[in-house]
Amino acid sequence: MNESANFYFWFTLTFLAAGLVKGVTGMGLPTVAMGLLGTVMPPAAAAAILVIPSFVTNVWQLLSGPATARLLRRLWPMMLAIVVGTVGGAALLVRVDPLWSAFSLGVALIVYALYALLGPALSVSVRAEPWLSPVIGVVTGAITGATGVFVMPAVPYLQALGLDKDELVQALGLSFTVSTMALAAGLMVHGAFHLNQLGVSTLAIVPALIGMWAGQKVRARISPKRFKQCFLMFLAVLGFELASRPFF
User: Fold this and answer.
1) pLDDT tens digit string along 99-153?
2) What's the CA gap between 140 and 108, in Å, rounded?
3) How far apart, in whole angstroms, are the C-alpha atoms of residue 208 and residue 17?
């Protein structure tokens, strides 16, 4: 009973925190949720729990503006490549020793946090986009499948396309939605996602949406830039803890 109560306490706290981050920054729910859940369970199990709340919040973000159809026409090669890479990469998340899956997740969190904190702003030319989009999609999919984290290198790539603010928010929602569905498919193909996990995953919607609502309130009161810096430093520390597990 105590173990069950502790799990649901940590589960609720995780999705409140993940929703809060997404409400303030427009992203970060799967990253925070995978990082925190990954400290108490194998990453494959954490990824399965993440599916429903990630899907709901990202569809909401995708449909928040008028550019959905235009972005689908522009980014479909990248989205298709994400699906292929994720379904294939999910075999690593399922079959590799959980300690080394946690190591991969930790490295992904550290790389993303350091890039977002220190990396230069990039720009992608119109000529490069047709061939670069599928490449970025496959790499993003492989990392998503192996770690359950959707952000690298899709986020810096989408930021480099010169989209306006609202289009970027929708493009991130599109990428994360496709990644979520592909991750669910990959976990099912490799036997790590079952219908009985849908109940727990669905329960996460409530704290995630409460966290998003609170995050939107916080965003109106503090500097999003300062919050993002604190969030990224937290991810780097969490990533280091996960990456160090096989060695201690």
Assistant:
1) 787 788 788 888 888 888 887 777 888 899 999 999 999 999 998 888 887 878 8
2) 11
3) 8
Rounded Cα gap, residues 180 and 175, in angstroms: 9
Neighbours of 107 (CB within 10 A): 16
From CA 232, how far away is CA 112, in angstroms rounded? Answer: 8
Cβ distance 82 to 144 under 8 Å?
yes
DSSP string, 192-244: ---GGGHHHHHHTHHHHHHHHHHHHHHHTTS-HHHHHHHHHHHHHHHHHHHHT
Residue 153: cis peptide before it, omega within 30 degrees of 0:
yes
How many CB atoms neighbour CB 128 within 10 A? 12
- 3 state DSSP class of 188: helix
The dihedral of CA 234, 11, 243, 196: what is its sign? Answer: negative
Q: How far apart are CA 196 and CA 190, in angstroms?
A: 16
User: What is the token pair recorded at 139?
Assistant: 């790499």
Task: Kindly state the DSSP code that residue 121 receives in the 8-state scheme.
Answer: P
**pLDDT digit string (tens) for 9-41?**
888 999 999 888 888 777 778 878 887 887 788
**Residue 130 carries which side chain, given as an amino acid letter?**
P
Distance CA 88, CA 178 (A): 15
Look at residues 194, 192, 90 and name the one whose alpha carbon lies nearest to residue 150.
90
CB 128 within 8 A of CB 74: no
**In one letter, which amino acid is 202?**
T
Phi, psi at 99, each rounded to 5°: -60, -40
Contact present, 83 and 214 (Cβ < 8 Å)? no
Instruction: Identify whether the C-beta of residue 101 lies closer than 8 Å to the C-beta of residue 92.
Output: yes
